[in-house]
Specification:
Layout (H helix, E strand, L loop, with lengths): L2 H16 L7 H13 L17 E2 L5 E5 L7 H4 L7 H12 L20 E5 L12 H17 L4 E5 L1 H13 L15 E4 L3 E6 L4 H4 L6 H14 L1
Parallel strand pairs: 2-3, 2-4, 4-6
Antiparallel strand pairs: 1-3, 5-6
């Protein structure tokens, strides 16, 4: 195991422990805790995570998927990114088809799912009311995204939605990996960055997009196939 791999694993494990302890955003912490107490009727017998949700995946990942935030009764319940809701069902099926996930199903942290050469993070690690974090809350979570990028050897980023696209672009600009104006977010966009890095755009697999047909499974597959090709 190379020194770089060891450092990556150590930092990845540190983030795994540190993110759930974050108290930077009182509004989000109150909301997550309230949802965990009140629960949804379908999950009333389950213990909710109710805390900031850590990253999930391979500490040696070359592909980084960036989402918006945990769902109140999804990852805020299960404690794992994109696990326990319809968005996650779509994403993990696609990751499995692309060879990045060991299985297509994601139900909870003990379900045996593992990611291969892929990691998942989010712009915000707490579930926000109405799925809308404030600009201040997004900025408060920026250090976690910075640390995640620092820990991983990821060279291809897939941004799920416009907010994730803007957050990734801002990070790339701060690090000097991208100069000049970034194209506006669109599904299937590909932007080259310094050091052989790439930023890809993909519609978020939210029910609003999947139920209306704005995002189809072949469209999601195409983005992950492009990511695989760039790797």
């Amino acid at each position: 195991m190379s020194p770089r791999t060891v450092r990556s694993k150590v930092e990845w494990n540190r983030l795994e422990r540190a993110i759930p302890l974050c108290e930077a955003c009182p509004r989000l912490r109150r909301h997550c805790a309230q949802v965990a107490r009140e629960k949804r009727r379908a999950f009333r017998d389950q213990e909710y995570w109710g805390r900031p949700v850590p990253n999930f995946g391979d500490a040696r990942a070359r592909l980084l998927v960036i989402g918006l935030a945990p769902a109140a009764h999804g990852a805020n319940r299960t404690g794992r990114m994109f696990t326990g809701d319809r968005s996650g069902e779509w994403l993990y099926r696609a990751l499995h088809r692309a060879g990045f996930a060991s299985q297509a199903e994601a139900t909870g942290r003990g379900d045996g799912l593992a990611l291969r050469d892929c990691a998942i993070t989010a712009v915000c690690h707490c579930a926000p009311p109405d799925n809308r974090p404030t600009p201040i809350e997004i900025r408060a979570c920026e250090p976690w995204l910075e640390s995640t990028v620092e820990a991983l050897p990821a060279r291809v980023w897939v941004a799920l939605g416009g907010l994730a696209w803007r957050a990734a672009a801002a990070l790339a600009a701060r690090r000097g990996w991208r100069s000049g104006p970034l194209p506006r977010f669109s599904h299937g966009s590909q932007v080259s960055m310094a050091g052989g890095r790439w930023l890809l755009g993909c519609y978020h697999p939210s029910q609003q997009n999947t139920f209306t047909g704005r995002l189809t499974e072949p469209m999601l597959d195409a983005v992950l196939s492009a990511a695989r090709g760039l790797l």
